[in-house]
Amino acid sequence: MEIRGAGRIARAAAGALRDHALGLKVSSLEAFRHEMERAAETLVATRPTAVSLPNAVHIVMSGISGAKSVEEARASVVQRAEAFIRSSQNAVGRIAEFGARHIRDGDTVLTHCNSEVALACIIEAHRSGKDIEVFATEVRPRNQGLITIRTLNDAGIHTNFIVDSAVRSFINKIDLVIVGADAVTVNGAVVNKIGTSQVAHSAHEARVNLLVAAETYKFAPRTVIGELIEIEERPPGEVLPDEIAGALKNVTVRNPAFDVTPPEYVDLIVTEKGAIPPQMAYVIIREHLGWEIEEFNKVFAINTGHED
Ligand code: RI2
Question: Ligand 1 mean position to 120 CA, how many Å?
Answer without folding.
Answer: 13
